[in-house]
Amino acid sequence: MADEALFLLLHNEMVAGLYRAAEQGEGENGRCTTKLESMGFRVGQGLIERFTKDTARFKDELDIMKFICKDFWTTVFKKQIDNLRTNHQGIYVLQDNKFRLLTQISAGKQYLEHAPKYLAFTCGLIRGGLSNLGIKSIVTAEVSSMPACK
C-alpha cells in the first residue's frame, strides 16, 4: 500500500513540476504533455519487458490487449480495467470507472479541464507497453465525468 501512495505522490509532483516550469517560461503546456507522455512511454517499455519475461507469446492483438487490461493494469493501478471494447478492426477502448490518478482531483467538474495532463503519463505507459509487444499505436484519453476515463 505504501508503494501505491508513493506512485501517486510522484505522479502528482511530476505533473505539477512540469506545468510549474512551463508557467515560469521554461516551456509550453503542449510540450509538458509530450514530455509526460514520453516519460510514460519509457516506463511502459520497461514494465512490459519485465512482466512478460516468463509468459508465452501472445497469439494476436486481442490477447495482448487482454494482458494489458488484466495483468499490466492490475500491477500498476491495483485493479483491472472495467471494460474493454473493440471494433475488431484495430481500435480498442479501455474504460476505467475509478481511475486512481484522477480520484484525488475528482471533487467536481471544475477540475475536468485539468484531467488530460494527469492522463498523459498513462497514455505513454500503454503506448510504450504496446510498442515493446510489437504494436504501433496511438493512445488517447477521454474524460467525460471524473474519475472515469476511456
From TrEMBL:
Keywords: Endoplasmic reticulum, Golgi apparatus, Neurogenesis. It is found in: Endoplasmic reticulum; Golgi apparatus, cis-Golgi network. The keyword Endoplasmic reticulum applies. GO terms for cellular component: cis-Golgi network; endoplasmic reticulum; trans-Golgi network; TRAPP complex. Transmembrane segments: none annotated. It holds the Pfam family TRAPP. GO terms for biological process: endoplasmic reticulum to Golgi vesicle-mediated transport; nervous system development. Signal peptide: none annotated. Belongs to the TRAPP small subunits family. BET3 subfamily. Component of a transport protein particle (TRAPP) complex that may function in specific stages of inter-organelle traffic. Specifically involved in the early development of neural circuitry, likely by controlling the frequency and amplitude of intracellular calcium transients implicated in the regulation of neuron differentiation and survival. PANTHER family: TRAFFICKING PROTEIN PARTICLE COMPLEX SUBUNIT 6B (PTHR12817:SF3). This is Trafficking protein particle complex subunit 6B. It comes from Columbina picui (Picui ground-dove).
